[in-house]
Amino acid sequence: MKRIYYLIVICLLTACHRKATWEHPPVEVEVLNHMTPVKDQGHSQTCWAYAMLAAIETEHIGRGDSVNLSPAYVEYMLRQEPQAPESKRGMGITCINLIQKHGLCAYDAYRTYDSTIAPPRQVFMLGAVYTPHEFARSVCAPDEYIALTSNDDEPYNTEIDIDLPDNWQHCRFWNIPMDTLLAKTECAVRQHHGVCWESKGHAMAIVGLARDAQQNRYFILKNSWGDNDADHGLIYMTYQRFREETLAVEMTKEAYTTKPFVRF
Asked: Which of 35, 129, 161, 264 is deepest in the core (most CB within 10 A)?
């Protein structure tokens, strides 16, 4: 199937909307990685920041280093970028770039979206004091993450630009076949790595794997619409939906180079 990146105006204007239909099947959970509590983005269009930070959090919890990070800090720093759209749209790699440039702080230290309240200048964590830049480097080292996509209109195993308004920084994505992208994503989750998943309309962190009675396979995603639904903020996405809707995936380079899981 050809995967063509095209502009759908309605989709672009309703990013992170809460009316999307997701599966809520009876499933058997195979893998459910550790995560911080589900957050609620409210009316913000920054699902990409919530998803990317959630992936970083899961990555660190898997290493035995628990962190809970502030999407509000990322949104505050987004306002410092002259090229940033008024919609506050972006991508997971946008979040990585912003925290490398502006730093980061813990969730409990800065939860507000009041633009008149500046974030803290020091970060206190486990008895240590960091600047926001030092803290950012401690949770996300420079060039630690790789941004992936699958577009069969472009050469595989090359870096390409995703030509959509969300990619206003014109970040480059490593282009690989969809079968490879799915296998790499499944492998990363099985190895307890954090993964950020993005479609044209929403972004979430992938935190687990499941299957139903008919052996259909699912990714379990951590959403950012609160935890008051039946699945307490978790979403189930079929592998087929992953193939059809995936725009981009971010994971650590360590996760990407892990040998894919082979199912016998």
From this structure: 35
